[in-house]
Amino acid sequence: MSPSAERDQTNVELRRRGRFARALRSGWTRFLAAALAILVGVVAAAAALAPWLFSPTALLDAISGQLQTSSGLYVATRGRTTLSLTPRPHISIQGVAFADRNGALIIEADQLHGVLKLFPLFAGRLEVDSLALVRPRARLDLDQKPIDAPGAAARAAATRPATPEAQKADNVRLGVIAIVDGSLRVRRLGQDYAADRIDASLDWRRIGEAATFTASFDWRGERLQTVLWVARPAMLLRGEQSVATARLDGESVRLEAQGVAQTGLNARFYGHVAGSSPSVRQALGVFGLSAPLPGPFGDAQFSAQAYLGPREAQLKELRLFIDGNEFAGALGLRRDDERLHLTGALKSDFVSLKPMLSDAPALLAPDGQWSREAFDPPDLSGADVDMHIDAAHARLGRLTIDDAALDLTLRDGALDLALTQAQAYRGKIKARAAFRPADGGLSVHASAQTNGVDAGALLWDAFGKQAIGGALDSTVAIDAAGENMATLMRSLSGRATLGLSEGEIAGVDFERALRRLEKRPLASAQDIRSGASPLEKASATIAFEKGVGVIEDGLARGPGFALAFTGAANFSERSLSIKAVAGEADSAGKPRDKGLHIAFELAGGWDELSLTPDPQAFIRRSGAAAPLLPRDEPAPTAEPPAP
After folding, report:
1. What pLDDT does 24 receive?
2. pLDDT confidence of residue 5
3. 522/622 Cα distance (integer angstroms)
4. Does 188 have pLDDT greater than 50?
5. 233 burial via Cβ count (<10 Å: 0-12, 13-18, 19+)
6. Element housing 286 (H / E)
7. Is pLDDT at 605 greater than 80 in this prediction?
8. Which stretches of 447-593 are DSSP H helices?
9. Which phi and psi (to 5°) does residue 412 adopt?
10. Contact 420, 376 (CB under 8 A)
């Protein structure tokens, strides 16, 4: 290698070594600078924290002052206080208590843990970023003086909207507070309320910013979770409006709301609400309420546009699903003199009435007689109700009605039901019933009116039998009282008028029996028990007294026969006894002079009625069998109707 080439290589190597030395010196410089900065920071932090590290009293005074300024509550401690810098600066206080000026709110916690903000420490300030109260026990007495806690929230509430003072108050910093395994006791209007196992968090970083509250707690035997979010809490504190959302979840109830809230003299909420519950009765129990109406109220869901005020609630555009029924309309709830009043107007395409009668007592005992099981009506005295329901179709068992309008009224535990109009079985029907507690039992007053109702179809759907048919016009009014169904039926009293036209009587053929009575009298006894008798018109009046309905002025006529009947229906024993005389008539049902007559009796239990013709009347007409009868013949039991 030439001398010049060697010199060039040497120069390159020297330059490389120079760059390495400079880089090494620069790295050590940065390292030393960082180490020095950290050391200075530690020294500064130690200097800043020195008053609190070596004086627990100073630490308590600093923390207590900040907490009192933020919350407005007096702060007292009873235990040891520690300050730690790792992993984050934080404090721990054993045994801490809070109270407002009037003593209406008192909170005692086993421990307080607070996380401190880092950078304010270098300036010698303690600023709490978040707090956790461990096992706090809070007592709130709303029957004494009101809470007096002039904290940051109270100061913001006292400012006028859109003023420099309000803007300054809105900029006050707060933080996050958590509750771990807490309890709450509240006294209001002489009533005590309790919540236990409370785990909660309030994230409210600045007075003017959004706040979020989440909690889970035990309340009246149920674990509940709730979430509340307020967009502008400062505006809400001043009585202005703010967007807010809320949610409550539990085993028996789920509720949610989104809308606009307002506090102060015009406190209210309006927006969308929705909820669901497997049992409305259990859900109401969570709020200390009872269902004001009978029924299971299961599998419920609803959604509506709501207006909620201090003493009223209005649900409009309501969609309600309950007990398998669907309703639309509006509901209102208000409190008058500490009493709830529920009003509503609902519509439905189809309503099953069976769930509404689920609390009704059993009608019959296993032996087929009226049940003697004591009535146990639900307590309906918790609220007053005025409800109107329109149903395009309604069903109870096999009974159906259309275009029904039902009014329900509840006052002091007395329930009134009124079917003001309905189409049923080709006719019209109206009914009213009043139920009132009485002497350990139940008092009932009921009335009904039918016009042109198909009696055959009605009886078939109601009892599975079709003894008579035709257009039924009737009025019924009855009263009864008792502690069970048996005593209720024994006390039955009232009156009914019945009219039937253009129908038939099933199971008997009066015209055929009367026509064959002259020639074959014994065979006509069999004829009367078969076939059917066309009916032009029938009427009767029934007077009820002590459970027995006495049939008065019973008349019926049809082609070829005219019928007169009397008797009684014993509602207490579920039996019937009717004696009747059928006479010959023309095709229009007008009785014939000196026409033939057949006497018979319809008697037995309601489930085992039997038709028994008068045997002597048929034997008397038989030439061969007549000598078998005694000469002194009894007088007929009834006469056929006059023309």
Report:
1. 46
2. 56
3. 7
4. yes
5. buried
6. helix 280-286
7. yes
8. 455-463, 485-490, 510-517, 521-527
9. 50, 40
10. no
DSSP state of 637: S
Helix boundaries (H) for 124-198:
152-158, 164-170
Q: Which residues contact 453 (CB under 8 A, 6 or more apart)?
A: 424, 425, 426, 427, 428, 429, 471, 472, 473, 474
Strands of 382-426 (E only): list them. Answer: 383-396, 399-411, 414-424
Query: What are the φ/ψ torsions at residue 48 (nearest 5 degrees)?
Result: -70, -35
Q: In 546-573, which ranges are E strands? A: 548-558, 561-570
Tell me the helix, strand and coil percentages in the chain, rounded to 5. Answer: 20, 50, 25
HSE (side-chain half, CA atoms, 13 Å) at 539 = 7
Radius of gyration of the chain (CA): 44
Give the closest residue to 627 by CA, choosing from 636, 635, 637, 616: 616
Average pLDDT rounded to a whole number, residues 266-287: 92
> DSSP alpha helices (H): ranges in 415-464?
455-463
- Which tens digits make up the pLDDT trace of 389-405? 999 999 988 899 999 99
Task: Give the helix/strand (H/E) hosting 24.
Answer: helix 3-53
Q: Scanning the structure block, which residue is given the tokens 């009192």? A: 68
Residue 210 in tokens: 């959004």
Tokens standing for 372? 């003697």
Residue ranges of alpha helices (H) inside 371-484 are 455-463
Task: Give pTM, 2 decimals.
Answer: 0.78
Residue 410 pLDDT: 92
Given a contact cutoff of 8 angstroms between Cβ atoms, the answer to whether 465 and 459 are in contact is yes
Closest CA to 330 of 349, 343, 321: 343
